[in-house]
Amino acid sequence: MIHKPRISMHAATPPCTRTHQIGALLLVISTFFLTRLLDQSLPATYPVNLDRRTSFPGSLSLKIYVYYESEIDGLYSLLYGRDGNIDGNHCLKGQWGTQVKIHRLFLESRYRTMKKEEADLFFVPAYVKCVRMMGGLNDKEINQTYVKVLSQMPYFRRSGGRDHIFVFPSGAGAHLFKSWATYINRSIILTPEGDRTDKRDTSAFDTWKDIIIPGNVDDGMTKYGDTIVQPLPLLKRKYLANFLGRAQGKVARLQLIELAKQYPDKLESPELKLKGPDKLGRAEYFEHLRNAKFCLAPRGESSWTLRFYESFFVECVPVILSDQVELPFQNVIDYAQISIKWPSTRIGPRLLEYLESISDKEIAEMITRGKQIRCFWVYAPESQPCSATQGILWELQKKVRQFHQSAETFWLHNGSIVNRNLVEFANWKPPLPLP
Ligand SMILES: *[C@@H]1O[C@H](CO)[C@@H](O)[C@H](O)[C@H]1NC(C)=O
Ligand SMILES: *[C@@H]1O[C@H](CO)[C@@H](O)[C@H](O)[C@H]1NC(C)=O
Ligand SMILES: *[C@@H]1O[C@H](CO)[C@@H](O)[C@H](O)[C@H]1NC(C)=O
Question: What's in the GO CC field (predicted)?
Fold first, then answer.
């Protein structure tokens, strides 16, 4: 990912003209038909599975304001820790890298605006998952810093947070910010986690306002050309299915490890460790993952699992064993065409029998369809016709409102926005009262 300086990003991108939009539309439609004819002969990244009833890239009309880290007291520490020494590039790696990637993509986006007055949406950057793991902030500090940051944002106050976007890249979702339910429960939350009910009373995810994003698959697997490992031909795969992960004391995972002991030539499921000789290296992990026709994706600490997304790049059919899972971009992707979801309460010989009953031809067809949509898991620049970035922008487009309001926002005959004390918006001074 190229991180260009800020100034050029804005000026360099030509506006999306009507001609561009029509061009993009024609491209998508013609690709759709072409791929039906030619199937595998086109690059695997075109959104051929797009339902043409939904909106296309050309029809986006979005203005997103990205808060500067220096603009608001406290924001800097949500990105780099209390001492400012957490490295953003470090936070880019691993399954939680989306918190950095999405920020950088928005900084370079043609939909970025430098003017708050005209913005439809506001992006609040934070790398808190990484910062917390690296000891840059503890839970208490994260909570207090978020509250401090929000109280300095008049635009947040104006809409009660409805037009503000936050990324929470891990299974904890918005719970990373302890008092999220008080302060950002109306905001748009981007998270791979659509469920967080196992250890909490409430899920931080709301189907109507939040957006499920794909997990961050290792860049070494998603790039063109020399990926870390190449997929194996179906006939060369040693196993019917595999599960390569830590047991984490989870019932379904332990059941898979036991099942593998009973059927060692069908199912590969060693109990992996985080450290020591049983930990797989990066390449080793993908070498194992590609060696089965089906990659089993049971839930871990939470419902979403990166393995689901990784399956598409080693070209095994993912079998979801996580009942509460929520998947991204359901408006354009028909998951029944590219994956299997099996009840997590029915892990046993019957699952293996069922998977064995599926012919190689059917498996190959699912894999081919999976190759056509896996571009949606790649955090590529928005210039690519199909990417996670495009998917997220389309979802955000649906959240755009013509108007911004909250229970504490009022308007007059002449368009003036005022607060309960009839103070005009331009004179709202931080710190602002929050719920
Ligand atoms: C989060 O911070 C706010 C403001 O300092 C405080 O009122 C609230 O109790 C904190 N939440 C938790 C869970 O500590
Ligand atoms: C959001 O938080 C406010 C203040 O705590 C509360 O009154 C409201 O019910 C919450 N809304 C949702 C949708 O949870
Ligand atoms: C709108 O009307 C209010 C009340 O009469 C006035 O105080 C305010 O300055 C007006 N705003 C504009 C933008 O004219």
Answer: Golgi membrane
